[in-house]
Structures are given as C-alpha cells and as structure tokens.
Here is the input.
Amino acid sequence: MKNNFHRFIILFTMMLSAVAEANAQKADKLHAEDGLFNHLSVGLSYGLTGAGIDVVMPVHKLVTLRAGFSGWTVGDIRFKAINTASEITQAEMVEDDAVRRSKMVDKVELAIEPNFWNFFVLAEVHPFKNVPFYFAAGLYMGSKNFVHFGNTNEGALGFLYDANQKVEDYNRLFRTNYPPIGLKFGDYVFTADERGNIDVRMKTNAVKPYVGIGFGQHLAKTHRVSLAVDFGLMFWGTPKFVLNNDVEIKSSGKNSGIGGAISWLKAWPNLQIRVAYKIF
Here is the structure.
C-alpha cells in the first residue's frame, strides 16, 4: 500500500510537470506572437535626456511604438561672473555716478539652473528577427528652456541696470558702439533688468526631431523583463541666450568661444538605458 502511494505521488508529479511544461511552451509562443497592439510593456529609463517613463506597443511585426515622458532638473550651479563695468575707460562715462558705482563691484555670483522636460513619441524598426537591434525616429516635444541663469541675490543688481542705461544713452547720443555693462559668460554679456536681476535663458526649439539606434528589447519575447540601450541625437535647433523679454543676446565672439560652440550644438546627444516590464 505504501509503495503504491509513492508510485501515485511520483506519477502525479510527472503529470503536473508535463502539463506545466506544455502550458509554458504555449505561453511562450503566445508571448512572442506578432500582431497589432497585442502586447504592452511599461519601462523606466535614465540617460542624457533625463529620467523617464514610457509604454511600448507593437504596430507591425517589425515596428514598435514607444511614447512617454522624460526630463531632469539639477540644483543650482553657482559661479562668479566678471562685471564688465571694470573695462570702461571712457572719461565721460567713468565720471557718471551710475557707472562709477558699477565699477566698484568686481564679480557677482550667478546661478545656473538646468531644467529640461519633454514628452516623446518614437517609432522603432527592428529589421532583424533574431538580432535585438533597432532604428528609432520620432519627436520630443516640451521645454524650450535648457538652462536658466539668475543672480543669487534677488534685486541686488540695480547698479548694473543703471550703468547699462548710461552706456546705451551714450551710444545713442554720440553714435558710439561701446559694449553693454553686465556679467560675462564666455563671450556673452548678461545685462540686468529694471528689477535689478539677471534673467537669462538658453532657449531651444519646443519640437525636437530624434533619430537613433538601439540594442536590446522593449518587448521581451519569452520573459517579462527586458533591457535596452539607446543612442541618438535630438535636433533642437541652434540654442540662443535670451533675456526675459525674449530679446536675443548676441555673442561678441572674442573670448572663450562659447558662442562658437553653441552655434554648432544643433543636436543634443542621448545615451540611455531602459528596463521594461511586459504586462501582456
């Protein structure tokens, strides 16, 4: 009796194993089935476009559609910027009270605040059935402002505004071309507004085409979890520095070469890793 019971347990276990294996094979086959919107994965990503969340669905046996949101924000990056008033030597202007006051300050602390967010829709073409390689193209849409520059002491730069007004009046009256008074950032000069603040943004396009390549899977064939790595370029136009009234700040092109670097930075690189979970 005892031996028969043991045989029954062994036979029952073997039957369960066979059924489980058959169901697993069936599930794997269903899991890898091609179709339109018949699978869905949710992913988390991190890279040069920031941290993100997205969803992926197949729209063809070779094409998947990925849509989501990504972005990043970083705490203030502070540095000392040179006050260009110290470079004024024209006697008539130096004798002016506003210019004299501005020349008494050598450097002013500025803060850079990076803040960049976008929604995106990407189509990904997987040309090889058994190789997890793909091409990606689509659009990022969102923030125009890549970074913001501002003084750390609110309303404290009224003396720079007054001095710059004096220079503008002098240029207009005597038809001269003296550069503005403000704070240097490479070959740019950031001027203060009437409230005594520096309020400058590095501005890009709101709609940014994207092309790239990737390696890995966004929709796992036989598992729930997948991993992929992307590399691409987000074309955001030629960045420019603008004041809070959207007036563009022109580069002098004489000092650090930041203006030259900005002029060719028409695309932002993206290197990104993504982990996804396949819901169905």
